[in-house]
Design a protein that fits this description.
- The protein is mainly α and 346 residues long.
- Helix content is 77%, strand content 0%.
- The protein has 17 helices and no strands.
- It is globular.
- The two termini are 31 Å apart.
Length: 346
């Protein structure tokens, strides 16, 4: 039987379709009462499993080797956890004229989450950039985000972040950091199994996130928070996010040039420094925002799809640029020989 494939001409990521279908399911059949308790418990376990797998996949040797390129990683971290949040804070001037307070909280939260790993690697490889640097930058960002995102949320969101408190920080540590560290510790024994079954465990990753989305949006439906959002506000949110993405893509590309990075490094910085991780953000939002998580993650979901579509176009254009072959350094040239191995390890 011939296997069905997602049409290449479709501009929408099939996983985004799955996310939207999950939201629709939560709208039609939200979990209530006992079912809600079961879904919440399963969601908590799924999040812990998700971060355990993250820890088990990250090669400690790769992380240590990546530290040699510290200027690039510091640049990406600064974009992710300094520039992005500053732009998010600047958007407060749009409240209440363009964004509602609730949508602004979600918008600010999306600026606090770490960068992506998989899509940054894929687009950097497509554009013939520094793939190993993209792997390390995304991994370092995800690791730093486990601590920095809740701390930044506590400082910048305060009570608007679903009543963030010391208990929320403890939950972050227990549900995210402890499983991640356990995965790192057990990697010696489970790393081979995870590598051999990477495709199957990838479904576990995505299934875990879908469960988190269903639980969060079910709580939102039960509480009726969707009546607070007007379609015009959603269009305004899309416009604000488009400006945010355009600013970050411009800053990462031309800013990296001013800092003296070569073309391959600039590509890695642009793709790793301009993105936000839906996979890391959704579980964190479920802990930080509680019952308000469904509305809080909406800006992140929209931004995630937007960044994929825009960065895919940019990566394809960069892949056709002949200057990449003329101006690359010996280190950049060696990057392409490591693309296959590096991508598999990401």
């Amino acid at each position: 039987m011939k296997r069905l494939k997602w049409p290449s001409w479709m501009p929408v990521d099939p996983y985004i379709v799955a996310l939207l279908a999950t939201v629709g399911l939560a709208a039609l059949l939200p979990a209530r009462d006992t079912a809600a308790d079961v879904a919440s418990g399963a969601s908590t376990a799924a999040v812990s499993l998700l971060f355990f797998l993250y820890g088990a996949r990250l090669s400690t040797r790769e992380a240590l080797d990546g530290l040699k390129h510290w200027r690039l990683h510091v640049t990406v971290l600064a974009c992710t956890f300094v520039v992005f949040p500053l732009l998010g804070l600047a958007a407060k001037g749009l409240v209440p004229y363009v964004l509602t307070p609730a949508l602004f909280s979600g918008f600010l939260f999306l600026t606090l989450v770490p960068s992506t790993i998989q899509s940054s690697i894929a687009f950097t490889s497509m554009a013939r950039g520094n793939v190993p640097a993209a792997i390390c930058a995304g991994s370092f960002s995800s690791l730093a985000g486990i601590l920095l995102t809740p701390l930044l949320a506590a400082a910048l969101l305060g009570e608007s972040g679903g009543g963030f408190s010391g208990d929320s920080l403890v939950k972050i540590v227990l549900q995210l950091l402890v499983p991640f560290l356990a995965g790192q510790f057990l990697r010696r024994w489970v790393g081979g199994f995870i590598t051999r079954h990477k495709k199957v465990l990838g479904y576990v990753d995505r299934g875990s996130i879908l469960l988190v989305v269903y639980t969060a949006f079910s709580e939102g439906m039960v509480q009726g928070i969707w009546h607070q959002v007007h379609p015009v506000r959603l269009l305004a949110l899309l416009g604000v996010e488009a400006v945010l993405l355009a600013v970050m893509l411009t800053l990462t590309w031309y800013g990296a040039k001013r800092l003296g990075f070569g073309r391959a490094d600039r590509i890695a910085i642009q793709f790793a420094g301009s993105k936000k991780s839906l996979a890391a953000g959704l579980p964190m939002a479920s802990v930080l925002f509680g019952a308000d998580a469904s509305l809080a993650v909406l800006p992140l979901m929209l931004f995630h799809q937007m960044q994929l579509m825009v960065c895919a176009v940019i990566a394809k254009r960069r892949s056709r640029d002949p200057q990449e072959f003329v101006s690359e350094s010996p280190r950049d040239a060696g990057t392409r020989t490591a693309v296959g191995t590096a991508t598999r390890s990401g």
